[in-house]
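Narrative of activities, Objective 1.

The group set out to show that a structural description can be obtained from nothing but a protein's sequence at a throughput compatible with the screening campaign. Below is one input-output pair from the validation batch, recorded exactly as produced.
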Amino acid sequence: MKKDDPAWNSIDEVTARFAIEGRLLEKQPYGNGHINDTFLLRYETQEGGEKKYILQRMNHTIFRNPRQLMENIVNVTEYLREKILAQGGDAERETLYVVRTKNGAPYETDSSGNYWRVFLFIEGTLCLEQVESEKDFYDSGAAFGKFQRMLAGYHAEDLHETIPRFHHTPSRFADFKKAVEEDRMGRTALAAKEIAFAMEREKEVSVLTDLLQKGELPLRVTHNDTKLNNILFDAKTKKALCIIDLDTVMPGLSLYDFGDAIRFGASTGAEDERDLDKVELDLALFEAFARGFLKGCGGSLTNKEVEMLPMGAKLMTFECGIRFLADFLEGDVYYKIHREHHNLDRARTQFKLVADMEKKWERMEEIIEKTKKESGSYEV
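Output recorded for this entry:
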């Protein structure tokens, strides 16, 4: 948000309604998120010290029910807080803390109808934008695995779906087929090869949802955006500390979180890489994340979940590819583009990664089996 945005002037209006003690010294844009508008607030406390907060204007175009979204975040973070305290941890650093309004609400609205929330700023942390080493990816796997373990006892069905059917691959495939049939922009000829690639794999799109319906996979609390930059690392120890960006926390499958992390972090190419020869699955990174994830989960997954981890990686990559492709066919209405055919390029990288996974499938399964044995937490 630029400072000439009308909402900039709403900051003083809304912050005055939150239960923040002290005097506002500074407000400034913060981070590089693409969904919400984020600001860092610096306050002088009554004792003469300083305290920082994160203020966000929620994007209610994407998240159409901010009340339900914040209800999810409050319930999950309070549950985590109890778990962390019971284990002797630091609840103000190891999970997000929602600052309430003076009326006790977890969010506030301004006179223009925008929705705002405040989190306590977690000091002494850093965020990594990309995987720099196998250790980074192992640590992120352990962090997201721990997130699964800590929430294993939470009743996922009590959460709202902040984006309905977000990772429901059969629904995403139906949307893709509709985009092909309608061909609003006359682009199907440009993407004929990619459309054929997707259609050839239609039988696989319901593998995970079918297992869920049969009761062979459990419904869990899932993060649904398991990128490395959604973890705060301790600046001194470099250890993973806190999972952030909980807007998409909702009921799902653990395989969604595992798969999306692999899709983003274990690819050797950028998400929109044009040279497909640069795109493949890095098996060393795949193994590093799997080791960390199973370590973090600490035996909380079922054997069937562990067995299906490679399918989670493949389907989340495939799903992302058909979403990019559908958006290209519909005229680039969802994902922002920065060049002609950008979404088609993105779809091609995802499909190349899927194809490479298929070539390395036996090795992926072997890695998971070996990692499961090494963890000592699952039946072999």
